[in-house]
Amino acid sequence: MAGKDSTLLDIDQDPADQLEFQDIPHIHGSEKGPRDEDGQTHTFTTFPAAADDSEDEVEGKPQLLTDKKQPSFWTFEYYQTLFDVDTIQVVIRILNSVVPRPKSNYLQSYIRPNPDLYGPFWICATLIFTTAITGNLANYFHTEGRDYEWKYDFHKVTFSATAIFSYWLLVPLALWGFLWWRRSSAGYSFLEILCVYGYSLAIYVPVSILWVINISWLQYLLVILSMVLSGTVLVIVFWPAVKEDDKKSVIFDPVRDFPLFLVF
């Protein structure tokens, strides 16, 4: 029995030994604590570096876009970029070319940085046909009931195309040459000026259709109204280019637009 009791006493001492044994990982845990903290500190210091890399990547995207090689003037890709617009952009540019906004520059707000020739080309083409068709219709209504054999005048199409495309190409070229000669600080390119003048013709499309109404005072009122609206938009656009000029050389665009409607 005594031996068994001694055995039981040995068993009773085991928990104490186990308690002393359990103190060892507690000590090692305290020793590993600073190491773990060092590891966490090291991980924390590397996190901002990754954030800086992402910021550099984001900031570097515009530079990559600007450094992109532009296609040559003699390649098809160069002219393809001039027609790279969607319907929403064209509609917005047309609407804002009709309504003058004194506090907003049409070219800087809606044309840059992507001037196009798609909208201006089709505006000019549409204006050619509406001008020729309505011009013949107006002539027909004017001679109706008279002893006159009416014939369709195909020369109106040729005359309209010559007048409209000449205006669209030559006037912006002359203005760009003038600004270049005056060393204007506005920095308007020929393509931007060409785009602005092309969209400024959009208001004349509905006006040319309304010219079918054979009322002289209404016809001239529509012409004057369209000239004022279109000319005001152009003056607002190009005024910054000449406001610092000592001579204040400003050409009044509404007066310049009047010869367009001689095609009627």
Automatic annotation (TrEMBL):
Residues 26-40 have a biased composition (Basic and acidic residues). GO terms for cellular component: Golgi membrane. Keywords: Membrane, Transmembrane, Transmembrane helix. The keyword Cytoplasm does not apply. It holds the Pfam family Yip1. GO terms for biological process: vesicle-mediated transport. The chain crosses the membrane at residues 117-138, 158-181, 193-213, 219-242. InterPro entries: Yip1_dom, Yip5/YIPF1/YIPF2. It comes from the Eukaryota. GO terms for molecular function: small GTPase binding. Belongs to the YIP1 family. This is Protein YIPF.
